[in-house]
Amino acid sequence: MPRTKKEFPELVSEFGEDVFSCNETAVICKACSKPFPGARRFNLSQHIGTSSHQKALERLRKRQEEEARLQAATCMSDVAPFPLDLCRALLAADIPVYKLENPTLKNFLETYTTRIIPNESTLRKFYVHEIYEQKMAEIRESIGESAIWISIDETTDFMGRSVAHVIIGALNNNAPGRPYIMNCEIVERTNAHTVATVFYKSVEKLWQNEVRHEKVLLFVSDAAPYMIAAGKSLKVFFPNMIHVTCVAHALHRVAEQARKIFPNVDRLIASVKKIFLKAPLRVEAFRSMLGGIPLPPQPVVTRWGTWINAALYYGEHFEPLKNFVRSHLDSEDSTAIGEAQHLFGLESIRNDLV
User: Fold this and answer.
1) Taking the model in full, what pTM does it have?
2) Where are the domains of the chain?
3) I need a labelling partner for 203 at 20 to 30 A (CA). Which of 123, 196, 220, 348 fits?
4) pLDDT digits over 226-285, tens only?
5) CATH tag, 146-245
């Protein structure tokens, strides 16, 4: 049978009120900052016999002045304050909690705080969720009864997984509301269905399953077709919502059309990019001969505006770049050099870049 809250004070009294405290859900070892949900006598007996507890107990004796304050604080909360504050500091500084397993760091913290540093698994199991709930409560308090705007974008992480990020903020009459990252969710694929699902889950989290459909007034996203489709489907559930797409994305799509209209310019930019990619001798030769001109840019298709910037560069420095490629590079060294020399020789290429 699970322990009842009436039995916890008996265990605390038996094993020492100076070392253990309790609340309605757990017995807490104040020395180790470790909770024991549903604690039993056997669990506590085993714990006090461990070397880690003995070491923590020794440190506890060194801070008698704050013992009373610590006892009062831990009895008022389901979690001990020191590991909670430690976990909050790590998360706020974007430091993974597993870094506490580093022996040098752990010894440093224990030496200068005179506290036992909890295991990273203890922080993950008992404290990360508590901090999450506190932050969610802070967001709900900040939003209050205001109408909201929502922005969704997706990216890929280092493992290639698609991740949807949701940002929300309050729509106020007198000042812009503070934006909050409401949700980060891994999705199987990026389409209208997954975007709409993540959107709805996010407002459910905000209002704790009581979705206030009339309060969602603005949805901001890029202009991808699946985002536009998601906005149309969400309009059924949120009739007051206006879907606004990103102007920068629209300009990028214009640039994509420019690539299709001028295929020779696109091939030239790609060929010259290959010429200087991982070729330090060619880079050195370019700088020695054309020191006043920066190296040709290396546009990335998925980075907005980089191709247009590259085309502007070629239009501005066409003649010296053409002279360098055709007169000082050998087409036998690389296929890309041969293609670039051929494209620079076309009469139409200069006009395309003007």
Assistant:
1) 0.59
2) 8-131, 146-245, 252-353
3) 123
4) 999 999 999 999 999 999 998 877 777 777 788 888 999 999 999 999 999 888 999 999
5) 3.30.420.10
